Amino acid sequence: MPTGGASSSPTIPGLPPGGFATILVDPPWPLQSGEKHYRTMSLARITALPVGQLAARDAHLWLWTTNALLPRAYEVAEAWGFTVRSPLTWVKFRLGLGGRYQLRNATEQLLFCTRGKAPLGSRSQPTWFNAPVTEHSRKPAEQFAIIERVSPGPYLELFARRRPESNQPWAVWGDQVDSDIRIPGFAVPRYSERAQENEEALR
After folding, report:
1. If you placed Cys at 160, which of 117, 126, 135, 174 could pair as Cys (CB 3.0 to 4.6 Å)?
2. What start-end ranges are recorded for coiled-coil regions in this protein (predicted)?
């Protein structure tokens, strides 16, 4: 079931008026090798994230997924209230491992999804891009330039590992950063001064 629009949101410290116009999510999908590097989450827990409440009524969602979990990622996007429009394929410079029933992996998918009528800033972005692989599961910095060309702000990254190197202001949330928003039912270890100031303003 879709989570609904920003108008049905509870009060969330750090949420801009009307919600975030663009949200980037790199979920810690289950059944991956990520358990060795970070905490993973069940599909039910990922689906329960109130992404629809964080987003503006007219919004873009960019959702990372592996090829193996593509069907689940479509289901999660729909549960959050979004429609998948296009996959943006990250073509890596290094081959991954294969398996008994699969080809050697050299791509990941960043699903471009929409809700409502958020405009596209650029219509020239193709459905693929090249970028090198760095540390385990880290996504390429090129993603931010692409997203900012296509999608409007304000911007939020969920499950961020570090603050984006960007000229645009991004709010971040996750286990590995000082998070700018508090999501009810999804506590993280550290919060930024911005989050604390926003919470105090609501008291």
Report:
1. 174
2. none
Q: Which domains does the chain have, with CATH numbers?
A: 17-201 (3.40.50.150)
pLDDT digits (tens, 9 = 90+) for 4-53: 444 444 578 889 999 999 999 999 999 755 455 568 999 999 999 999 99
Distance CA 175, CA 101 (A): 34
- Cβ partners under 8 Å of residue 35, min gap 6: none
Q: Cite the beta strand spans of the chain per DSSP E.
A: 20-25, 55-65, 83-92, 107-115, 128-131, 155-158, 170-173
* Joined tokens for residue 84: 């998948």
Residue among 108, 42, 111 nearest 82 (CA): 111
Coil, helix or strand for 34?
A: helix
Structure tokens given for 51: 């992404």
pLDDT tens for each residue of 87-98: 999 998 766 555
Quick count: other Cβ atoms within 10 Å of Cβ 26?
21
Q: Within 13 A of 178's CA, how many CA atoms are on the CB side? A: 6
| Residue 189 identity | P
Alpha-helix runs per DSSP H in 86-191: 142-150
What whole-number distance in Å separates Cα of residue 151 and Cα of residue 119? 7
- 79 DSSP 8-state letter: H
Cα–Cα distance measured from residue 58 to residue 47, given in angstroms and rounded to the nearest whole number: 20
Cβ 62 vs Cβ 159: under 8 Å: no
